[in-house]
Structures are given as structure tokens and as C-alpha cells.
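Task card 7
Instruction: Convert sequence to C-alpha cells.
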Amino acid sequence: MGQVVLGVQPSVHAAYQAQADQLGVSDQAIYDKLNHIELCVSAELVRDAARHAAPVIGELQAELPPLVPGYRTKILDGNHLAASAHRLAELRRTWAAPLPGQTLVVLDQPLMLATEVVLCEDGHAQERSLLGQVLPLVTPEDLWMADRNFCPVDFLCGIAARGGGFVIRQHGQLKGTLVGTRTYQGTIDTGKVYEQRIELMNAQGDPVTLRRLPVAFHEPTRDGDVDIHGLSNVPRRKASAQKLADSDGKRWTIATMFQALTETLTCEVNTLGYPKAALFGLC
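Output:
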């Protein structure tokens, strides 16, 4: 699999044929093994790689400065594996493009390393259904950043309960009560920043008050958006609205990690239709 991911061999079968006499097992045995690799093994492969790479980055003094001083930024992003080829017998009976799985990936911003992954064999599952597996990864003084798909109130409260901070986009379906007046806080590269408090209700019916950070763009986005709204629990004494909004904007430049992996490595082997095999290939 290392030869396939690094582009030395074009496929698992080609890699097998190149060293079949050394392996001493059939190609079917190779595929059977790939198709049954437990998700926890694949996830640990990512953690183990990060544990080995982090000290090297430290020795090289190559860590990036934190986006928000006093916090270690963790960027959460989802990735659906590309549709696999219709080569498996189970997949030839459908015209739909089979999605072999999906992941939630945690990127450590100073290290620029993927340090944790949450894996799911159901490529059509909602990303929000996996958030319960993310909360145990939160540690004090983390600053979690994510897009609007990751803003359920209970997830935000879970981050705060573990001593972490967050700057997460507000989804249009997340309704709350605005408190006080919206005040102008300054300008960043993409637009004007404002701040206002918002009160949300958690699952227990208790009120949760957060900072709401609207950004009015200088120019509409490609999707036609003229503004966005960030939600944060970071105290004002630790970070201004401008700083948080600017950091959230930089998240999009960092979240291109998957594109870099796709261009540099064969991280999605489209002939692997079984979820465990495809997810192992990505990890």
C-alpha cells in the first residue's frame, strides 16, 4: 500500500505482481486482508505518523505561529472518499457512484499535521453523526475551527466543557436570540467585522451565550455569499473579534490539505470499493 500511495505502483494488484514471489501468498489473500483492516488500526496509523513527525518538525524549528496566541488551533474538516470504480460484484448492480467511506480529520495548525481521524464506513452518513467521537479529542487551550456543518449547540458546549475554545461558522438552520446591539469592530482583508452576543439553547433547555462575529465581505464569494457569521466562546480579553475573524478566514487556506494530498499522493485508490480497504488507503 505504501508503494501505491507514493505512486511507485499504479494499483494494489500491480504492487502485488511486482513482488508476488517474495510474498508467498495469493493476490486474493492480499485483498482479503485489506478488506478487513479494522478502522482503529487505520486511525492509529495516522496518530503514529504524527507522533514520529512532530519531534522532527520541532527540531527543525518549523512550527507555524499560532493563529490565535495562547491557543493551539485544531482544524476539523470532513472528507468523503471519491466514488470507487464498478469492479466489485456488489457494485455492478447499481448505477449510483458508490462512496466507500468518509472521514473527519483533525489538522494541528502549528505542525500542519493530521493528528487524528474519525473513520466511518458509511459514505452517505451525516458528518454531524460523527461529532460524538471528536469531543474526547478536545484538550484545554485548544482552539477548534470548522465550517458551518459542525455547529450543533451540544458540540459547541462539549468543546467548552473540556476547556477548549472554538470559532465555528453558524449554520443558517441554527437559530438563536440576538442580545444587545451589533457593533463595528474593524476591517480585515475580506471585509468588515462586527460583534454581537447570541443566546442559544442546549439539549437540556439551558441558555448558552456566545460571541457572534458577522463579517460583511467586500466582494461576494463564488457562492454568492455577502456575509458569514462566526460563533465563538473565546473571551474578549484573549482575542479581539478582528483576530478571530481573520483566523477563521485563514482556515480556508489550510483546509486545502486534501487537495495537496490528492495532487501529491494517491490517497484515494478508486479501485478499492470496500470501506475498510479504502479508508486504510487514505490513512
